[in-house]
Amino acid sequence: MVSRTPRGRGHRREQPLPTGRCPATRPPRRLHSPVRNPPAPQPEAHIPRAGLTADRLVAAAADLADEAGYENVTLSALARRFNVKDASLYTHVRGLGDLRTRMALLAGGEMIDRIATAVEGRTGKDALAAFAGAYRDYALTHPGRYAATQIRLDEATVTDSPALRRTAEITYGLLRAYGLEEPDLTDAVRLLRSSFHGYCALESAGAFGAPRDLEASWDRMIDALHLTLLNWPRRDAP
């Protein structure tokens, strides 16, 4: 937050007259040199308000989430970042819930772009490992953005989002290569998501205390998931 110049610094206040002394008996003081104002602080942490848009707000909110934590993203904090009043943001977003939904869509799009690039041209275990690696890399390097992807969105929002539809296509395509169909597809998606998310959450919190190498454990988890998908227990749809 940019500090403000203390009130009164750089400006002389008119002093009250001493008691019992007539104004005429006290000539005005002459200033031989002007009092200089201290240099104004540079708003390095602020984003210029000119051209404020919903997209710029959401991008700034995502950056703030990575820097300070997802739960610390508020409209007030974002307004300070742009050096505007809170009310100015409501021209572009409907409120904190709308902002968080937009953050989830932004981060989801970024994440699936990385995953798509990683899995392109790969199949089987190689595709699974590439998918998982891109997921983990994004979760660890962009913790605030990643946290935004974990909120539950309403079905209409998911349906209308090209990024989330693409996420479903790539994820289900990966699992269909193992010969899975519904309801096994949904079960397998939940298995992968809980495995990847759980590992990343524990790793980012420094909760793995054993001396075993984290990369080795991750690779073994991918091996186990691959074998599980290959040998998925088939059940009829209810």
Could you please describe the fold and organization of this structure?
This is TetR-like C-terminal domain-containing protein. Residues 1-12 have a biased composition (Basic residues). Residues 1-47 are annotated as: Disordered. Residues 51-111 form the HTH tetR-type domain. The chain has 238 residues and is mainly alpha-helical. The protein has 10 helices and no strands. The protein has helices at residues 54-68, 75-82, 86-89, 96-119, 124-141, 143-148, 155-160, 162-176, 184-204, 214-230. The chain is globular.
What percentage of amino acids are in beta strands? under 5%
Helix proportion: 55-70%
Largest sheet at a glance? Answer: none
- In total, the number of strands is 0
What is the molecular shape?
Answer: globular
Element order: H for helix, E for strand:
HHHHHHHHHH
* Weakly predicted, low-confidence segments: 1-36, 38-48
| Discrete helix count | 10
> How would you state the average pLDDT, rounded?
85
N- to C-terminal separation? Answer: 57 Å
Secondary-structure class: mainly alpha
